[in-house]
Amino acid sequence: MTSPRIAIAGAGIGGLTCARVLQLHGFEHVAVFERESSPDARQQGGTIDLHADSGQEAVRAAGLFDEWRALARFEGQEQREVDHATAELVEHQPPEGDFRPEIDRGQLRDLLLGSLAPGTVQWGRGVGSARPGEVTFLDGSTAAFDLVIGADGAWSRVRPALSPAVPRYTGVLFVETRHDGDEALLTLTGQGTMVAADEGLMLWAQRNSGDHVRAYACLRADEDWKPSNAELMDLFAGWHPSLRAFLEGELIHRPLYSLPVPHTWEHTPGLTLLGDAAHLQPPLGVGANLAMQDAAELALAIAEHGVRDGVPAYESVMLPRGVSFAERTNPALLEMVGERPIRV
């Protein structure tokens, strides 16, 4: 029996997990197409926690569990809440067990990349659009496949072939800053995550490997507003100086988007989606885990049932699961980052 030709759009952790599991099960004609020119074309996102019942199960399916454990930061499960005005600790969850240890996204991606057959990822060859049985690349060329998998994130180029849905702005803006080796900020952050909140403003900091901290000022804002450092300092004027120090440095503005809920589609032979392409939702600890769970379950369904029957079997589980999480995470984001009171 000839191995089916499978195209995966996007070399994020979801697409790479799917490719790895497919190759483990003997699928020889798997290609991952990525518009970025190389693995190092841009810095990958910060730290992610892999949950025992989803992300970790996907790592097991990929045959990389021991390698992942060697990189995982179990101490990163620590959670700290501090008072916004005094910076004093008000709640603490020590790192216990192994349900959701942290790993840098870049480290996880490199682990997956290193596990693939040489030449699996075609860098600098982005997918521009797709239809059943065919991919059109950004340079206008085309290629035929038995299955096209959209693992290309929020602004997926594959999704329009299945669904007219487009991401919508949630009304919440995250403004990211990055800090290396700052002992005061490392102490406040602890080994894992620190959070402080007051009247519609939230500050969230996460420790990455190598004494690197990424912090996020979280607030309701217009979609196109890009506050400066000075404007952020004004918003957080009543906060403790040690917390306002997280707002210094280069700013990266990240308006948050989600897909309409529920987001589903009628099964179309030769096409499917996984991860954010299928169920984009707020970054509240489930996105990466769902993407990897989708990827592993899709690959395993294809291995067991073939492309024709495996894809609809996967979608019958993935779609309601994605809806269920989105129905919870979208309201949770707005509850977490409330409206700021009007000052008169």
Automatic annotation (TrEMBL):
One GO molecular-function entry: monooxygenase activity
One Pfam family of this chain: FAD_binding_3
Signal peptide location: none
Domain FAD-binding: 146-305
InterPro entries the record matches: FAD-bd (IPR002938), FAD/NAD-bd_sf (IPR036188)
SUPFAM superfamilies with a match to the protein in the record: FAD/NAD(P)-binding domain (SSF51905)
Keywords linked to the UniProt accession: FAD, Flavoprotein, Monooxygenase, Oxidoreductase
Name of the molecule in the record: 2-polyprenyl-6-methoxyphenol hydroxylase
Species lineage: Bacteria, Bacillati, Actinomycetota, Actinomycetes, Pseudonocardiales
